[in-house]
Amino acid sequence: MTTEESKRHAEAQVPKFQFERVLNHDEAGRRINLYGRVDSQPALLILERAPFPDAPEYLSALPTNLRSITNLGNNDIYAWFLGSGGPILQNNEKDKFADFKISLICPCTDKHIKKHSRQGFRFVTETPEIYRDKVRPFMQVNREEGRLNWVFNIIEGRKEVNDVIYRTPLGRDGDEGFLLLPNLHWDRKTIDALHLLGIVERRDLWSLRDLKKKHIPWLKHMKAKLIDATVKTYPQIEEDQLKLFCHYQPTYYHLHIHVVHVMLEANATQSMGKAIGLDSIIEQLESMHRHAKGTVIPGGAFVDLLEVDGMF
Predict the structure, then answer these.
(1) Residue-range domain boundaries for the chain
(2) Rg of the Cα atoms in the chain
(3) Which of 42, 85, 235, 286 has its CA 20 to 30 A from that of 103?
(4) Comparison of pLDDT for 270 and 140, the residue scoring more
(5) pLDDT per position as a tens digit, 95-120
(6) Which residues, other chains included, contact 128 with Cβ-Cβ below 8 Å and sequence gap of 6+?
(7) How far is residue 37's CA from residue 282's CA, in Å, rounded to a whole number?
């Protein structure tokens, strides 16, 4: 058999694959391992989504060729959808299986464009002085530009009301109120990719930097409630299958807690120095409470505190 004949023979086997069962799939839904048969022989078919082509002719046609676009939710300038772009099935089921998760930001700003563009990364140890002189003023500017309107819409019950899994009645608990709802990037179907957000009501906590030892009981209470609400809503999940963490720096400057399935692919947003476990935050605050000397900050350096009872 010539090389060309061997190539054609291999290509002809794929359409012959007769599916029997799923062996495994990754938590992000990009790879799936199938067991079946080819010409009565046992076979494995491993499918992985290829990178999107960057050809203009393909990308120009893609949005108009998506089918059955279903809105999952919208809030302020953000909207997210499921859509179909795969094979058209028979028996009027051509749009039953969505294979695209779509997000739309309109109108977007220059900051959105920069955030979603390819950019380099650096690992920086943040000192109290850097935080005071550079980071805190940067946070202030971002908060004053209206970038938190969508968060306030959720907190005040103007948007995504039906998506809320758990909440303390608005205003009832004062500074200790919070709510839980799905992250807009989760498709709300793939349990192994579960991603929820716990959002606090109060607006004076911008990030984990604002947490102090007095918040320890509240953080423990909130952790317990978030876990309990998650396992009650999704009974196929057990408590030890959940991870809770805060980002630093966060994408938006209003304190929130991520609740994810342990099988969720640990991409860059869960990498070292970016995702700080809630248990680690609580333990750090407790250690500060006991010793009142210093704290290990997310950058990894031990520093003197500007404020004895806070993560500066």
Answers:
(1) 3-48, 56-105, 125-304
(2) 24
(3) 235
(4) 140
(5) 567 777 788 888 788 877 887 787 77
(6) 303, 304, 305, 306, 312
(7) 52
